[in-house]
UniProtKB/TrEMBL annotation:
Taxon lineage: Eukaryota, Sar, Stramenopiles, Ochrophyta, Dictyochophyceae
Native species: Octactis speculum
Identification of the protein by name: 1-alkyl-2-acetylglycerophosphocholine esterase
Length: 178
């Protein structure tokens, strides 16, 4: 959440060395004066990957909506992935010390149906989703097509294709415009 906010804040500096930004459940609704989710932010062009958990009780409904607004107002290459039965802790390895941690790992309180609990998508599957899109995003945004080695171009093209597809069905909500 704070690392995701830090990524969004760093993108605002428009440092040409920063080629891409990945945000996992960023706290952009509650940090930085709330300007980051809007189109009035300074950087609308650098490629971004926005990932959230629909049941995230840490950033909550307002936080998830801010993440969608950030994605919607972004004009550059962008991908949005929301794990429908995932939470804030889906993007960690907390299951290594507590398989019932909650908020995306083990039985968890529901954000979308208050007063109830839900069983998250198995954490190994959630991590597979996160890794699939994160690797594809980094390959698409950072691999140079300036090399004479055509395998780099082929690998980058495969990464773009992977960002456009949804092999996970209704386990996720997926949007992409590259």
């Amino acid at each position: 959440s704070f690392a995701g906010f830090s990524t969004a804040a760093a993108l605002e500096l428009k440092d040409p060395r920063v080629k891409a930004g990945i945000m996992h459940c960023p706290s952009i609704a509650m940090s930085g004066g709330g300007v980051l989710p809007t189109s009035s932010r300074a950087n609308l062009e650098t490629p971004i990957l926005m990932m959230t958990g629909k049941e995230d009780t840490v950033i909550g409904t307002a936080g998830n909506e801010a993440c969608r607004q950030y994605y919607d107002t972004h004009e550059g290459p962008k991908t949005f992935v929301e794990i429908n039965l995932g939470g804030h802790v889906s993007f960690t390895s907390c299951e290594l010390y507590n398989p019932n941690y909650g908020n995306g790992i083990g039985e968890s309180n529901s954000l979308t149906d208050p007063g109830t609990t839900y069983t998250p998508t198995p954490i190994s599957e959630q991590h597979g989703i996160i890794n699939h899109y994160t690797l594809a995003f980094l390959d698409s945004a950072l691999k140079s097509s300036l090399n004479e080695d055509s395998s780099v171009d082929a690998s980058r093209a495969a990464a773009f294709a992977a960002l456009q597809e949804n092999p996970f069905g209704d386990v996720i909500t997926h949007l992409s415009r590259l």
